[in-house]
Amino acid sequence: MTQRASEVVAVVHELAPRVVTAHLQDVRVPRPTAVVLSLRRPGHTEHLLLEAGTGSAAVHTIERPPPNPKEAIAFQGLLRKELGGRLTSMVATGDGAAVELRFSSAGGERTLRWVGGRQGSIELHQEDRLLGAIGSAGPQAGAPAGPNRLDAPFDLAARAWFTRSRTEGEVAEARRALRRHLGSRRKSAARLVRKRREEADRGADADRLQAEGDLLQSSFRLLRRGMDTIEVPDWNRDGALTALKLDPALSPPEQVERRYRRARRARRAGREAAARIPEAEARVESLTRALARLSDSESLDDVQAVVDGLPGALRPRSSARRAKVDAARALPWRTYLTRRGIRILAGRGARENDELTLRHANGNDLWLHVRGRPGAHVVVRSPGAAPAPELLRLAGQVALAHSGVPDGEAADVAWTRVKFVQKKKGMPPGKVLVTQERVLHLRADRSALEELERPTR
Prior knowledge:
By secondary structure, the protein is α+β, with helices and mostly antiparallel strands. It is built from 9 helices and 19 strands. It is elongated, with a radius of gyration of 34 Å.
């Protein structure tokens, strides 16, 4: 017989004289893996806890019964219906891996069976018929060793050991949950560092584009609409000819201006990305330090100290914040927030798209939608008279993400002001008529959404 099994037998032998022949007064199931029986005998009430499936299965008394759960658990209703009367026996069966409590009432005999182990179960039987159960089926190997027998009443020792074991399990679970959270956030932060470094490197393209614009300008007389390539002398290379690709649809001035415009954008994007690299690197370093501190944590207070040491944006959501998030999900749109505080809203479905666009958006808000695909209407609130290209790009990525466009695939995103979006009578939900639209050609990149925050409102 294992040490764990022998301790279970000892607990049962210690408790049986006190609880057997008591009448069942109340049954509570405070969580889906525990049953509390209130047993009344003359002058005293014992509250007997049977717990399974939590990593430290328990059989011992508690000082007072826990409150009933906020949401009803079906097994509690079954026990209150089927179980009652007098407890006639409490025995450890076999090698102590299970405990059986037999009750006798006018409705017949019932047996409540507790099965130990890390993932045990609690079962209600009528003779050979299983009426219901909670937890996993059957005992598991590798159950933890129980408490050593002390001089004090053994039930108190068992209670103390089970409490300590449960606390250790809670600490381990808290560490696992926080480690998953920190690891996920660190991966995201590392991706953001790589992305910003790549953007900073692309800033070097600005010099090449500027030079190409200068070459086209110096050979302006050779340019004609409809040309797809041109060879121009490059005096920085002793007049050697350099071939440049052209857009046949553009006029000569547009060909030159296009190179200069792209050079300005590349230079600006490179500067902005380079300036934001230290922030992303600091986030990776903060998360790495937090993971190191978490490895040394030994109590729930230690785990909480790791959370408290994180910047607010990196902390796990509290239960109160989750409740606010759940409330926010009742809105017909998802909300994103840019670094400058501009709100980007994405509809949750066809009818929600109509509500967002036609009832909540203002006329000068921006409206975006992926062309040729069903997906979210995206509204940018108060974007200003001249929306920044970066704002349009972020809103376009939101539209791509909520229209099922896979990462790396390119698509056209139509955009206009909300006042140019109409719905004609008889149009199905989500279908609208758009005028004065412009088009962004974007490649889907969900990592771009990491630049946006998700407020609860």
